[in-house]
Amino acid sequence: MTNTHMYAVTIPEFGAADVLRPDRVPLPEPGPGQVAIDVVFAGANFAEILYRQGVVDVPLPFVPGIEVAGSVRALGEGVEGLAIGQRVAALTIVGSGGYAEVALTAADLVAPVATLDLATAAALPSNSTTAFLVLDRVARLEPGERVLVHAAAGGVGSQLGQAARLLGAGRIVGTVGSEAKVPVAERFGYDEVVLRDQVADVGEFDVVVDMVGGGTRRASLDRLAPMGRMVVMGNASGAEDVGISANDLWFSNKTVSGFNLAAFAAAYPADAGRALRRAVAAAESGSLRIDVEPLPLDRAADAHRRIESGSTTGKLVLEVGPE
Ligand SMILES: NC(=O)c1ccc[n+]([C@@H]2O[C@H](COP(=O)([O-])OP(=O)(O)OC[C@H]3O[C@@H](n4cnc5c(N)ncnc54)[C@H](OP(=O)(O)O)[C@@H]3O)[C@@H](O)[C@H]2O)c1
Known about the structure:
By secondary structure, the chain is of the alpha/beta class. It has helices spanning 46-53, 118-123, 127-138, 155-166, 182-186, 215-222, 246-252, 261-267, 269-284, 300-308; strands at 5-10, 21-26, 34-43, 67-75, 87-91, 102-106, 110-112, 147-149, 172-176, 192-195, 205-210, 224-232, 255-258, 292-296, 315-319. The chain folds into two domains: 5-124 and 262-319, Medium-chain alcohol dehydrogenases, catalytic domain (Quinone Oxidoreductase, Chain A, domain 1); 127-258, Rossmann fold (3-Layer(aba) Sandwich). α8 packs across α9 (269-284). Bound molecules: NADP nicotinamide-adenine-dinucleotide phosphate (NAP).
């Protein structure tokens, strides 16, 4: 890093994982209400693949990275309650920029980290925060309710099972795409884990969380009990969008909601920050477990390939700099 430039991995053009390029980019300075963070780890996420593929239109070259952990480098005008050098986890999801030595975000989206290691702290801002918001704020999960979660061994799936448990759910069932992932998902708060093609046999649910899409989305709707709520929060399968009949919802007393953390954090930063701090507290108390695998930042393309192939369990994080 120089006084004016820093190391980052950028998206110079849209395309496959090998477009990701190490580069020197201008060092960002925090504006009013912002925090600059010396990044130690950046989470690697499905969302960053969508940016890289051009599914989300962003200006190029673009520094991806929706979450980081590190220490506070500088505070913008008006920021209170954080100190230079403090260890933090942060959502950088609104402007991205996490795959870099220094990242900027709004102070509301920064949470102090006391005891957690920074690799784990970088793995929770997106998926764990989303898990609490999806179940609590969107699905309005009530104690004792039955919950079904797809891709249960994955980054967000591993957090949804545990968040459902912490929020007092009744029966919690996960689905996975392969036998090998069944024992992995079983460690994340699920009462039962089944292969996704067996989902028709697992009964009905008050809340279903779908981030897989396609046929899974349609099958999920069939699993909803009357007054049940399905939250649509991703399309990992890359399938065509699924049309859902409003009249069918009307006749069957079912609800379908959507959730997108980037749009939520932009519109409601204080609420997103509260959910982030709740996730950090749960991880620090030992009641939220996150399986983390670190890789060096210059292997970001490998991380993307592995996430795209659907072969990962838990969470990959990119090591950017020393603590
Ligand atoms: N809306 C939001 O705010 C938000 C926040 C976080 C994540 N998400 C979304 O949630 C999904 C999962 O994210 P994640 O970070 O948990 O990633 P992840 O750990 O890689 O999970 C994705 C999982 O989806 C399943 N999958 C099914 N079909 C797939 C296919 N064709 N290609 C790849 N994976 C496939 C795989 O699990 P199986 O082997 O079990 O099928 C895979 O492991 C993504 O769509 C992401 O965009 C959304």
